[in-house]
Amino acid sequence: MIQRTQWNRLSNRTVSAVHNPLLLMGAGSTGKKTLAWQFSSLFSDDIVIDLEAGSDSTIFTKGEKFDDILKAIFFLKNKDLRHKRTLIFLHEIQNCPAAFAWFLDSANARLPFHIMASCSMRTPMVNAHLSNFKGKKTDILYIQPFTFEEFLKSIGDETALEAFQEVPVPVYAYEKLLHYFHLYSLIGGMPEIVSTYAATRQLTGLRTIYERLLSSMILQINRHTKGVKHCAIVEDTLQNSFPFAATRIKFNQFGNSRHRTREMGEAFRTLEQHLLLHLLYPSTSTHFAASMPDREKSPRLQLLDTGLVNYFSGIQKALFQSQDMNAIFEGQIARQVVGQEILASQSHGDWEGIRGSTGISEKLIMEGPPLQPIHFWVRDKAQSTAEVDFVIPFNDLLIPVSVKSGEPGRLRSLHQFIDLAPHAYAVRLYAGKLAIQQAQTLRGKKYYLLSLPYFLAGKITDHLKGFIRLTNG
Prior knowledge:
By secondary structure, the chain is α/β, with parallel strands linked by helices. 39% of the residues lie in helices and 16% in strands.
């Protein structure tokens, strides 16, 4: 069982005597419970409150005071309240609003115990509780599917992992890392899938796991979605969404359904609440300060996991036989896996970004994970079709990221962004090696292009630091 990327910062929490409560936020089957179990090994005792089953919810629903509930937890679980090295873990806390309120109240109680909770949904109740902090502090750790780095840890190739962790990656490691990233893009990052593949090195045995994961997602939707009709629409929308990953969509009659914009919009919002997808909206600005997504424009689908996309879209064979992900399905899978890596890298960011005297920021509550939701760029003209795959904030700049093969002169949409931007930096992700070159837009503006191999999608920020410093002399 591998240690997740978040493990170091998680284990460091045991050093301090007083701790903020910790919320593990992530879709089902992404490893929240396993991470909590690993964390519990650092304590001499632990208490698990299972709020998914329902029976433990009664501890919190009697309207008692905070201290009385704490005593009840230790009493009903046959634990010693005087034992300070105890971890209290509330599993699937979104199922019990009273437990969520108690969890947040623990932020001001300054308890000697560690209190951790897992949450698989961003329901209106969860958002309402988080937005009513009023000076309380907590930590939120977003749990995504395995990243490429965690995939390398899982398969046990230490030399490849060490090479990947170097900045810059040594040239001799490129071929092997590209091969591994192609394999990672094929099977995805769901922990059970990766663990099974690492043990067997067989692709055929993964089919039943993909099917079981989807069944588990549908079961979760059915359990928490009100209304038979709405539930059926949400389930159909999820199953129809895989072929449309990393593409722009319209709600009206999505996937050749008969459902109109309002019904489909509600279905997609429900799937977002379950953290099974993100609706990425475009920005029309090239300036950092004005780079708010335009929610009046068509969004692009970013699904939870690329492996699920490949399996349920029926394209595993085509991807397996290709050497360049941009060469198939117009770069759709390349955009999906790059988006997945960028989201994971942002969700592993500094916890201080969500702390402060007023608790969690309003932007985080309204827009959800990660801390800085990614978006893409489109030209704000009716006759224009220019589109840059991703834009990411770096310091006070908005950096365009294009997932494209070919020479710099062919990156027409990137050129249009650069012509309008107050800077001259751009990133291209492709199946080649790291390179820095000065190029020129079609209008004649000179700019610097940082070309990175796909497998460094989650490390763009690390490379931007040296790239901008180098080009500035």
